[in-house]
Request: fold
Amino acid sequence: MDGILIIDKPQGITSHDVVRRVRKALKIRRVGHAGTLDPLATGVLPVAVGEGTRIVQFLMAGGKTYRATMKLGEITDSQDAEGNTRERRSVPEFGREAIERACGDFIGDIMQIPPMFSALKKGGIPLHRLARQGIEVAREPRPVHLSRICVTDVQLPYVTFEVDCSKGTYVRTLCHDIGLALGPGAHLTALRRTRNGSFGEDECIGLEALEADQASPPLLSLAEGLRGYPAIGLTPGAVARLRNGIPPTLEDVVGTPDCSEGEMLRLLVSGELAAIARFAPLRQREKRGDFELIKVFIRAASA
Reply:
């Protein structure tokens, strides 16, 4: 049993809890998730099964869309509703336009300081463990990109918005920072991931539904799981050489690569994933082929 499940993660459990339940339901040990969701959060969580675990790193590369609700006037130590309140401030009667302007200032490339309550490590120790001991350490700001923030509802002190962002973005930190920009501060009270890379809510299956019908889980193939990457087919001769680790040339592929120099793409054989490669027709280090092989799956592909 190999492939990718798109799970609708419920609130109140960790992403690792989801993996454990999938592992138990499908009676398979090799299970992993792509893109951690905090216990407070719900929504799209890709879960890799069997050979699918070999593409987790590529599943995590895509952008994300979230629907978030923040509460103005309260600042918490975890930047969300699960933490302790550090400070309360009065909330002015903001108009929607003022809130939208403040959110708009965060669109684009920004630097974000990761929260203490996170899985990042300092000296090999997860930050959340230090935070629970009352220890706060300096964290280096990290670049993230926000391409869209759309305010969808304002019921002060609550504000709901949608955000399209790069991987690695902490939405609770975004709420915290927007709150400070407005003045009264804020923390995250609800979060749902509605898109993870090319996967949306409409493709999700709930854990209970999966557990009730274990015999026929809606697994996407490895090729479908990486559908966000361009794809080209290989000729029979290229397949034989790929089995020996020799990358294909442009003469070995079916069709023209729909990508630019340096982009990654899927190499397919009869619709199955044969390899993930980087389009590199101008590389100097190695003269063999026009593609740099990143990971080969040819043993699982049809010749």
Notes: The longest strand covers residues 142-155.
